[in-house]
């Protein structure tokens, strides 16, 4: 999906002259104007491998792979554990199994239907597992409704339970005394920050009814971002389906709690001439959908870009395979990792902040017309 | 075609860089003039930067 090859290649071209002594297979200079398809050098092979790994990491998966061990005889051993697969097929009903059934490109037979995992999508196939591809290498097989507990879903459930536990125990503590204990000492300033610096100034006097959502979405995104940076962490907030769901909730809450003024400003902007009103109507309507769309794209792009950059830098060590790269890139990765921690907080903050701004727009009371009289 | 896409991505990054740079510069100037308003300026700066960034990311993903 993401052809970051370009970026890495750009990097490579600047470094390859400096590290040229390690190049074993320097292709003979091709004749001017002709393109020669040179066989893949060692470096390019590593590059392909790094890219494959990155693409795999960014995507959701049906099983939890921790690492892949490459045996001397060329076979691969996957370390990890399978996750439950649940899917619904119109013809054959609901199916449940473990994802290990799909290992090694096996065709799974369940309730009379044959299914196969192809690029992390469950497809309906015939008994031989034939997958029909169109000219863009997309499968044209019938898809099924997939409700599987994939690793993103697993991570969301874990985060939800953790949040219930942390904030539930915090709430119980506050009933006993107003002094925070334990982990509450860390979270109380954050909660107060969201109330005093995000909700109150942006939403106004009606801020209380939005606090539940703002706090939930802030800590949910923050926890998932931080988990994504930990070892075995999963890129959940870098999954467009999840950010889409979050933005959709913000959108729905905004529309359903909006007052008369909000709708008036969208459909019939007061205080401007009628021709302008007609021009502004479609723009405002479009703006209604662009706002949550920018929310979902921002979070998704920031988080997956962060993961890609960190992995690209680690991957470069294996591409160059020399001492300078071995020292420089881990250091660079470390610095970028710190930046990613900042981004993890910043993106959670910005999502919450912009949600609050949109809620504020929906609740604004306008007095400027009276001022003109 | 790969090449126009790469050039497009480069243009997007140049534009975003200029945009966010101007936001940061203006916010810094404002903070230097009115240090007591630094908190408010920072919030406004982050929102504006986030909006610029959002458009840039949308363009970059369209390029992909």
Overview of the structural elements:
The complex is a heterodimer of chains A (373) and B (64). Chain A is mainly alpha-helical. In chain A, 58% of the residues lie in helices and 12% in strands. Chain A has a 3-stranded antiparallel β-sheet with strand order 4-3-8, with no helix packed on it. In chain A, strands 5-6-7 form a 3-stranded antiparallel β-sheet, with no helix packed on it. Chain A has a two-stranded antiparallel sheet with strand order 1-2. In chain A, helix 4 packs across helix 5, helix 5 runs antiparallel to helix 9 and helix 6 packs antiparallel against helix 8. Chain A is globular. The N terminus of chain A is likely disordered. In chain B, 89% of the residues lie in helices and 0% in strands. Chain B starts with a helix and ends with a helix. In chain B, 6% of the residues are buried. Chain B is built from 2 helices and no strands. Chain B has 64 residues and is an all-alpha fold. The mean pLDDT of chain B is 87. Chains A and B meet through helix 8 and helix 9 of A and helix 2 of B. Chain B: InterPro entries: ATP_synth_csu_bac/chlpt, ATP_synth_F0_csu, ATP_synth_F0_csu_DDCD_BS, ATP_synth_F0_csu_sf, ATPase_proteolipid_c-like_dom, F/V-ATP_Csub_sf. Chain B: It comes from Chryseobacterium suipulveris. Chain B: This is ATP synthase subunit c. Chain B: It is a multi-pass membrane protein. Chain B: Belongs to the ATPase C chain family.
